[in-house]
Amino acid sequence: MLTNVLFYLFAAILIFSAIRVITAKNPVHAVLFLVLAFVTSSCLWLILNVEFLALSLILIYVGAVMVLFLFVVMMLDIDVETLRKSFWQHLPLAIVLGLVVLVEMVFVLIAKPITLPHTVASFPSDISNSNQIGLLMYLNYSYPVELASVILLLALVVAVALTLRQTNKNSKYQNIAKQVAVDSSTRVTLVKMATETNPEVTISNKEGETK
Amino acid sequence: MQTLQHLFGANGAYIIWNLICTLVIIVPLTIFVAYVTFAERKILGYMHARLGANRVGPKGLLQPFADLFKFVFKELLSPYKINKGIFYVAPLIILICALLVWAVIPFNPNLVFAKINASLLYVVAISSLGVYGIILAGWSGNSKYSFLGGVRATAQMISYELAMGFALVGVLMVSGSLNLGEIVAGQASGLMRGSILSWNWIPLFPLFLVYLISGVAETNRAPFDVCEGESEIVAGFFVEYSGTSFALFMLAEYVNMITISVMTSLMFLGGWLSPVPSSWGILGRESFVWLLLKVCLLLFGFIWYRATFPRYRYDQIMRLGWKVFIPVTLIWIFVLGAWIVSPLSLWK
Questions:
Q1: How many angstroms separate the CA of residue A67 from the nearest CA in chain B?
Q2: Interface TM-score (ipTM) > 0.85
C-alpha cells in the first residue's frame, strides 16, 4: 500500500521534472531538473530492491557527471533571448527528427512487446545484489565488460590528448615536484655574526628634539 | 512501538516510529556538533597559548548556544539580483545530505537505524550529493568571489572523492561486504584474532592515510580550505550568506567532519571493537564508547591540522589528489589483490 503510494509519487515527480528539463528557460534550472529526474528514478529502483544499481546511478550520474554538466552550463554565457528567437526557425527539423524517433520506438514496441514477468517485480531484500551483479559481470559477461572498459579507456586517453598543449622552449611552466622538494637550506642562509654596537645613536621624537 | 500501533494503526505507527528514531539520532548529533565547535575554539586557543572562549556559562560551556542565538537573531540578507529559490535552498541541500548519511551508520552491532546491504555505497553516494549545495550556493549569490569559491570547492571535492572511493575499494576487498556492520565484524576475525593488530589500519596503512587526508580535503578543512581562502576570495562560496543560512553551512561542515571520523573509525580502526584483549573485563568488551573515543581522537586530529599546517596552494592540492593519492591507492589495490589470493593472506 505504502509502496504503491510512493511509486506514484516518484513517478509523478519523475515525469514532471523530465518535462521541465526541456521547458525550463534558465539552462541551470534545466540541469537541476535533470538531476531531480535521476534521483527520483533511482528512488523508483530502490522500491524494486535493486539498491546497488540505484546507488550507483546516484553516485556516477548525479554525483559526478551532472556536477560537471552544471559546471559547463554555469560557465557558458548563454543568451536566452537569441535561443528563443531561433526556436521557430529550427522547429520543422525538430518535428521531423521527433517523428522519426517516435516511429522507430513504436515499431520496436509493436514488433516485440515487452512483457514483464510478475515474479521479478520485486527482488527479496535479503540477497545482496552487489554480490550477484559482481558474479554475473565477471563470470558470465566478463568479455563484454572488458571490451567496454577498453573503449572507455580509449575515450579517456583521447580526451587527455585533446587538451594536451605542446610545450615549446619559450613556454613557461612550473615544475611542482621541484617546488615541493625544496627545504630551508636552499632558500634561506643563516649567517652568524657578532652583535654590532653603535654608541652614537640619535633618536628623534615627534617634536623634532634630539636626545 | 506497540502503543503507537494501538494509537495510529500499522502505517501511522511505522511513520511515527521512524520519525522518533530520526530525532533520537539527529538531536544528540547536533549537540555533539555544538560541542565540537566549542572544543575547536578551546583547543585552537590553547595551541595559540591563549584561553579561548570562557565567558558564557561555567568555563564557557554555553558558548555554542550563544553563537547559535546570535546567528538566529541576525538579519537574513538577500543580495542584489540573486536567484532567490536556489539561494535559500542551497544550504539546506548541504545540511540534508550531511544528515541523511546518518541513517545507515551503525553505533554498535545491533543499533542501526536502517540496516541495508549496501550501506557503504549509500554513504558514498549521498555524500557525493552535498557538492550540489556548494556549487549552487556559489552560483546563486551573483558574486564573483562566491562563484570562484564554489568552483574551487567542487573541483576539489570531486577529485578527492575518487581517492576516497579507491581507498574504500581496498576495505571492500578484505571484508567482502558493503555493509558497515559486517566490515567492523570482519576486523574482529582474521589471523590476529580481534586485537588492535587485526584492524584494517595496519594491512591497509597506505589506504588509511589516503582516506584520512582525503577526508580533510573533502570537508574543505584547513590546510585544504582554499575554497574559503579569506586572503584571496573573501570567504568563498558562503560570502553572501548571513544569519541562519550561514549557520546551516557551519552545521553541515561539522556534521561532515564527524561523519568522516565515524567512517574512518568504522572502516580502519575497528569501530566499536575494544583495543584491549577481552580478558580485561569491561574494558575488553565492544561498546559504543570505544567508537565515540576513536571519533573524538580523529576530530582532535582535524583541529590539530588546522592549528599546525599552512594552507596549500590550489594547484598543489590538485596535484596531491590526482598524481599522488590515486596512483598510491591503485597500486595498493593491486598489491592487496595479490596478497589476498596468496598463501600469506590474513583474511581467511
A1: 7
A2: no
